[in-house]
User: Fold this.
Amino acid sequence: MTPRLHPFTTLTLAACAAGVTTAAAYWPLSVAVALAAVALAARRGVAGRVLTAGAVILTPLCLSLLVLHGLFFPEGQTVLAQWGPARVTAEGLGFALELGTRTTACVLVFLLFSFTVSVPDLVSALAGRRIPPQFGFVLASTLTLLPAVAGRLDRIRQAQETRGMVVGRGLLSRLGALRLQMVPLVLALIDDAGSRAQALDARGFGSPGPRTSYREVADPPAQRLFRAAVLVLAAAAVARRIVASWPAGVPS
Amino acid sequence: MTATTRTALQIRIEAFTFHGEDTPVLTDTALSVTPGSLTAVLGGSGSGKSTLGKLLAGWLRAGHAGQFRGSLELGGTVLEFRGVPDDPRINPAEWSRRVAFVPQDAAAMLSSVRATVAEELAFGLENRATAREDMLRAVERTAARTGLSRLLDRDPATLSGGELRRLAVGCAVITEPDVLILDEPLASLDAAGAAQVEDLVRSLRGTGTGVVLLSQAADRFAGEATHWTILDAQTALDGGTVTAAGTPAQLAGSAELERAGVIGPHGPGGIGSGAVGSAGSGVAAGGRRPGPVPAAAPGPAPASLELRGVGFGYARDPRLPGTGAQDRVLRDVDFAVRPGEIIAVTGPNGAGKSTLLRHFNGLLRPTEGDVLVCGRSIAGVPVGKVAASMGLLFQHPRDQLFERTVLREAAFGLRQLFGKAGAEARSRAALAEVGLSGTEEAHPAELSASQQRLLALATVLAREPAVLALDEPTVGLDRHGLEALQGAVGRAAARGAAVAMVTHDLEYARRNAHRVLELSGGSLRDI
Amino acid sequence: MSQPALTITAPGQAAGRRRRLLEIAGAAAIAATYVFLVLTQPADIANGPASFSALVALGGFLLGAVLLIVAVLPALPTSTVVLIPVALVLNVVLGQLMGSTGLPFYIDAIGTVLIAVLAGPAAGAATGALSSIVWSFFNPTVLPFAAGAALIGFLAGMAARGGLFRRFYLAPVAGFVTGILAGVVSAPIAAFVFGGTSGLGTGAIVSAFRAMGDTLLAAITKQALISDPMDKAIVFTIAALLAYALPRRTTFQFPFVRRYRVLAGKAPAAPDA
Assistant:
């Protein structure tokens, strides 16, 4: 097994890669970052999940960009084809390519982070950095709740069908059925949250003051140094880009 | 800690009212706990036991959760509450470190954000900034005490019911409280799990911890108590109050205990005369019947519910190798219930009882064989349509209830069948049938757990189904609830409904069914 | 370790002032970013995407959202903190359920609005921002919209405080207004960070405005003014329906609901403590 990276190291890398890609807005770099993310995902064995999740998010976005800028780009000069109001311009296609690849790269990089990070390690690391413990709680609790809610919704549906609910094809019938499913779900979730709040308060979660951590997450000095270096380099690259593209008309 | 007869914790409640409600949930109640004692608070569903426990432990706090008039005393500190804004405010973290509470739903105790049992145990210590070495020692000690030592690296979400409850107790006692309050600690535990919890309580008492047991059953465990307090609600929607207090010897078999709806030492099976008897099926009422019950009223009438050669297996994980017979949950099951007949299916946990029940109305479809309701196959018929002749009552009523008032709940879907006036008359009759008259305008979620199950039963009865199927009917019901259930089921059978129930309680099954079948190895046999 | 007391005193004012400053800073960061983006929007995007505007939009809005979270989160009572994951899950699950009915709206803020109605504007804003940040774990494209989500939660809370949920017909009106503001604030993100919208339907509306010669920001703002108010009116209506379907014991446990008499119905029997 390769030595584990601290959650902050991978988070820093992901954020810097996304930041630099956004700042550069240069499609060959975006493609390279996206490919690198996929290669790393394949090495960690999560390529399938990263690509599936990425496809669900990116397919409609990229198609929308292609239609929008490919057909309607009033600023475009080089007209390749024209049907009525729709004009295919080279600039429009280029713009769609730039933005599509840039977003793809950022999404894949962050998905790679979230599918490889150990959430308990991340929560523990966050708690150790004077970040409000409530933040780690919300993150981890959401990840526990999601599968539980899916199961609960299934039970509610079964129970209601058992009581004679037939869901028809019409919109009104489906909306009616939906209302009946939402009420027990919301009620149960809010009730459970109420008793969890009592339990958490009783176990000292609500009191202010310092905390300690049972879980130990190794953070070798080399990784701290590496993170600092990556941050400085990324900040320098972004700053250079901002200076270069400082818009005219804004006093600098 | 010196184990003297000094009082560790004392509460006196004039009244406690939740915000937004008019009637108090608890009035004129007092309780005191001494070190090393076991105090049992006994009462039916809705008597305010859990509210009392949470008030004692700082889970419900004056002003924060409701209006509290009374006083609390812990280790010499006396707090007086008059229900005004400048009442003292309890610090929940510090109060609960000394008075720990374990809720009935053990999962509610867990933080839901810790990945292993060890980290979950340590959660309360982390929040109090305990040094890591002390935490490691405390986790090890508590795990040994609660029998969790081999489970420390497991994900809490994968624990069994018994393990989960021991973890919840572990989370409560890791701060070494002076008083431990347990809400229905033995509910839904098997014999081995219950014995472990009882042993744990004995060892805690040995080290001077005062233990309070909240229970709706005066069972063997409650019999070990040094003191009993009986809580009872005057009417269906009223709050609870103390009707009697004393030693178990003074109160066992008392009228107050029975009136409060507390289940006796023999469990649900020991209650009432049994549905079969009260339905007038020819069996002498009362007493324990030896041997098999003679088949009652149903003669050669066609079966209301029939399973023919039903086989079923859950879809296997395709990545797992092997195709063994152990994947079949049901194998060639033949089963028929005739009008007026009550049949019980028993079997250990995991034998497939719930799977069998879900075949009755098509929630699960058989891989082989056929299911017939009123003589017609239900293959391809939507569950919602089968429901017209098949009433099924689940274990957890909360998923089944969704309306704003009890009356609307019972009348749901009846209007299309019986018209407006007919729907209201039928739903009122069904509510009366299960003893819920007078609660028509209440919100279903504000009923007690026992009443919620009865309401779910009423929604089923209002449709007058040809078949009534019950999943673990005794779970969560207090004595009044059990009696109402038995009466309603018995009368439904007398009217000609076929009743099939699934229960782990063999004693209850024997006393309330014409026939008892056992499900084991995927097939049914008479016992 | 000194023996902590069994009782606590009311929270002090000093910490409150620091938090108020952070809140104002967060809101100011969001407002300044928006004004800056509108004033300096690149007139000519033909030479490639506006990476400068994208960086300012991302940086300014995220900074504002983080400041708001840092200001609000530690002050929230535990009973509200535990509702934030619930809101997030409801946003996702109820959004999916509504999607299954085939209505052409995204309906992804029901949980946020419900929590804002029960626990107030601060909780609503924190819920909106946090749910964007946590949800970006699964869908990174929602991260830049954290400020818009915070605004929705905050406005829903203000509407509840102003009694707009006491009359049933007022809830969709409040949603409509919230949708206008939230749509306008989020438009620069869609324009400069993503260069368009994520749906084909909304993309078609933007295309229509572009065909008439609008700038990208103007076209997306106009599209947002068409879709968002309707969407938020529906969301507010559903949240109101749910709030009224809950039992009083559940809704009245929230001090915000009791203090501002958020929901119609008789006043609580017990005086507020």
